[in-house]
Amino acid sequence: MSNLSNLTITEQALEKQILPKLPANDQTVIMRVYHAGMHMIFSSQTHEQMVQGFEQQMQQKQDIGSALGTDIANIMLVLFQQSKGTMPQGALIPAGTLLLAKVCEFLNSTGTAQVTDAIFADATHLLASVLQSKFNQKFGQHVSGQAQPEQQSAQAAPQPSAQPSGMLAQGGV
Amino acid sequence: MVSMLGTILAGAASGAGAADDKNVTEANKQIAAQNLELSHMEVQNMYDQAKMGRQFAMTSKMRSLMQETLATDVPKILAQQKLVSDESQLTPAMRKAGWKVATLKDNTVAAGNALMNNGWIGGDEILKAAASENNSADKVEGQLQGIAAKNVGNAVVAQIAAGGQANRGVAAAGLYSGASIQNAQTAAQAKVQAAYALPGQQPPSTGMLGGGAPAPSNVVQWGSLK
Fold first, then answer.
1. Which domain holds residue A45?
2. Rounded distance, CA A150 to CA A148, Å?
3. Closest Cα of chain B to A112: distance in Å?
4. A44, A100, B146, B199: least buried by Cβ within 10 Å?
5. Does residue A17 lie within any of the structural domains?
């Protein structure tokens, strides 16, 4: 049961919801991408920079949901880029969602931010929208409300935003 | 870990006879599962360490910020009662004017009030302790440490930290109602939903588990996994 003033969604609960519905191989791929994202965010070399970047965003009065959604999407895109396009695109949203849930747990349990189910919903929406718009130009046009000439194949590896606004802002990766 | 897995793998391969392919497959499956499990444990350990480190850092930061609050406000509160916290602060002129050294109880009450005035959670606990007959400086210090941990994530205190000491009163007064946080959140939510909602699509209200609108048919589907 969701709760708009607390965080009831956990990474573990999402795993139980998402993974059993998928073939075993897909589960392995998603978890591998998720683990790579966890390494990227929580390794001793990077986690402090990640949190500082996020704190900076909060001080700049950006809303937490869009900050989280955009940052996790950027992390997914960096991972995709590092895999030189070999990472299955379909793994990005489910793995990113698991990662997002884990980051929300971290922020809440350390008192860095107060993330609620409502904020998680916003962040998930933004995460999915950003990833979809990067891989699917039509979707991107819908989102931006602009009809642009096709310049990039949907299969081409998209570039992460030039200046990630939060966790990556400190140059941690 | 890799070498350990290599040893297990070699052992499993050598231990299984060529005619016993089924056992080899089972062993491989087990090792693969173990490998995934270890990887999961690895990232979980990494996460736990990052969390502990962050919690410790945040508590230390809170304790330091609390020290600032107490150092600024306790002397002011004591001064209203013609009290000083330390004998060395008492000049002959002050003595003549009726000033005295504060007792542990006076100091503890002033600390509790200072914390409560500035939006700290747990200031009332210090006040209760002040009323206790067997209170001690060590006990107060222990309580302050506990209150520091409890205030990690306190929006009022975080705002005070961001705004600096000069804005403490304003920040506490403005944020205590929670109105500004609520307004900012509502505005941000509306902005995100307006920017990303597709025509005819309702933004999900409770995230992935809430059964939001179905994904558009032209987006990358999980089925594209190979």
1. 11-144
2. 6
3. 6
4. B199
5. yes
